Every structure is written in structure tokens, then in C-alpha cells.
Amino acid sequence: MKLPEPIYQQILSSLGQWFIIRDQAGDCIFFSEGLLSALGYEGSEDLNAVFASACPDLQHQLSSSKYRFARKDGREVSYAVNERSLLDGYRLYVVLPDEASAEVRFHSQRLETLGMLAGGVAHDFNNVLAGILGHITYLKTILPQQGNHVESLNAIEEGANKASFLTQE
To answer: Same structural domain for residues 92 and 138?
Structure first.
């Protein structure tokens, strides 16, 4: 059974890898959405034009382990590329994001995790402060309105409110 071409394209796009496929004539027939996006292009653009401007090293079939790619905004990036010959003269290029990109993603994920942890701690701390403020309010209603304790309760309440404000920043 032969699958329709849109099914093949959907399968390739869902793999999460960056691919370029060229036919026997050298025309670009597939460019993965992830790679197009990383280079600043859209899927509606002419793939041959994108290939010509974004992949000069691949277009001229230079031998290298790293290839230069030109982003749409003019900046250059380098990626490792594994090239494979397919049936009937088709060429498959598997583009691998470089180590620096992976490192940046790793640090970004790490910072995101730290942010979530800090948010959780702040939330728990705020819950403790809410309990303290609730008890102060309760004590103010059951204790006499005058005496040495009033100044202490007000100082505790002011400190708890300041701490609560800090956790919300």
C-alpha cells in the first residue's frame, strides 16, 4: 500500500528532527518545519529559494562536518549535517542542532525548573504568612485594645505583611 504524500510529510514533521530532502534534479522537495522556523522562514515560502539562500554550503555540496546556514535575518549559524543517499537519486540531509544550542536549551530548562521551584517555595511561604496574619487578627479581636501586647502584635503584623509583599514580586 502506498501512502499519500501529505501523510509522509506529516510523519517527517512529527519526528522532531530537522530534515531537508532534495530530488534527483537537486530541487528541494521537503524542509522540516522545525528547521524552517529555526532559520526564520515559513512553510509557505518557496523551498528552492529557501535552500539557495539558507544553505549555501549544502547547495554547493561542500564536504564538511559543520555547515553554515543563513537565517532569514542575515545571521549565520552552523549545524552538523548527516547526508544520506536515498533511492532514485534523492538526498536526505539530517540537520543536527549544534552543541551550543543544546547547552543553551539545557540551561534554559534548568532556569525554568529553578523558577518553578522558587515559585512553589514562595507560595508555601505565603501560606505560612497567611496563617500568621490570621492569628494576629484573631488575637487582636480577643485581647484588650490597649496594653504592651498591641505594639508587639502590630510589629508582627507589619513584618508579615512586608514578607508577604516580597513573595509576590
So the answer is: no
Q: Which residue(s) pair with 68 in the sheet? A: 78
Tell me if the pTM is above 0.70. no
Helix (H, G, I), strand (E, B) or coil at 24: coil
What are the pLDDT digits (tens) for 97-116?
765 556 656 666 777 787 77
Q: What angle do CA 11, 18, 93 make, to 5 degrees?
A: 100
Q: Which domain holds residue 73?
A: 5-97
Question: Domain of 68: which CATH number?
Answer: 3.30.450.20
User: Can you say how many angstroms the Cα of residue 23 is from the centroid of all Cα atoms in its chain?
Assistant: 32
Reported as a single tens digit per residue, the pLDDT across 129-167 is 888 889 989 988 898 888 888 888 889 889 888 888 877
CB 18 within 8 A of CB 32: yes
Q: Please count the helices (runs of H) and the strands (runs of E) in the chain.
A: 6, 5
Domain count for the chain, please give it. 2
